[in-house]
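Morning, I've got a small favour to ask if you have a moment. It would help a lot if you went through both lines with me. I owe you a coffee for this, so here goes:
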Amino acid sequence: MAVNWMRRTFVAAACASAALLAACGSSSTESAISPQRFIAFGDGMADVGQKGSSYTINDGSINNWTLRVAANYGGTLKAVSAGGLSYAQGNARVSATPDAAGSAATPTVTQQIDQFLASNKFGDNDLVMLSAGVSDIIAGMAAVQAGTQTEDQYVEAAGKAGKELAAQVRRLSGAGAKYILMTGTYDLSRTPWAKAIKKEALIGRASRQFNDELLVSIVDLGATVLYIDVAYYVNLFEGNPGGYGFSNSSTPICTSVDTGAGIGIGAGEVNSALCTSSTLQAGADPTRYLFADKVYITPVAHRTFGDYAYDRLRERW
């Protein structure tokens, strides 16, 4: 098992390196892209308010990394429900239903792309942003806890979802998207959720398997795809919080408990989609916390990652 894990990790790392190298392009590029439209697909990590709020602290700030990328270009991004082009929705899985919270009404990432392509075409200066995987990892863990999936099946299913996301990336590229900025899941073993249920090792395996299979499957798409590693960044935030301005990387700052299915980790848990500046721990500084709830990160973490993504884009295109 250890040897196989090491082999998979090495293969994925090699493929990721190859993909990133392929995405670097020529250092002699004379002009950077100037996106005319910003388009997004994904789950709660990219949701900018499809149902009126995002999965973080809803404090009126630029609170999602996709918003930050758009803002750094001097542009804007709004949810489709508000007349924009962000189709991302919390709890959405790549292609499986129901969603992480058990709802069959949430459009999968695949269905989000269906919706866009049914009435839109990609322009030469469109920037597409894509982030998914978190909801598949959560939904799979729920199946393990319910006894409907073994641990090995869970990890295998996570890898399958990673391949399915890669297929959608390939679909976007084939449909004419010239600039695709994307990420997979971060390592959810680092979350307060994983630690609370004492399943860090298993959730870590599933998270890595998702990203490994995704990276292997997009290694040849460097001409149109830039992969940014949210897993690496959140690992840094969680492992060395003080180095990035955080004083708390283990406790959610929000107190907005959801009596329903919420973010898919169980009833009676904090749901950051319900979180505002009025539902924070008393006296807590939201700029010093990493996690809004047990899964999703705070606006300051989103903005820091968004700045990193923007810098990578500027280096690439």
Remarks:
- The longest helix spans residues 151-174.
- DSSP finds nine helices and six strands in the chain.
- The first strand starts at residue 37 and ends at 42.
- Residues 1-31 have pLDDT under 50 and may be disordered.
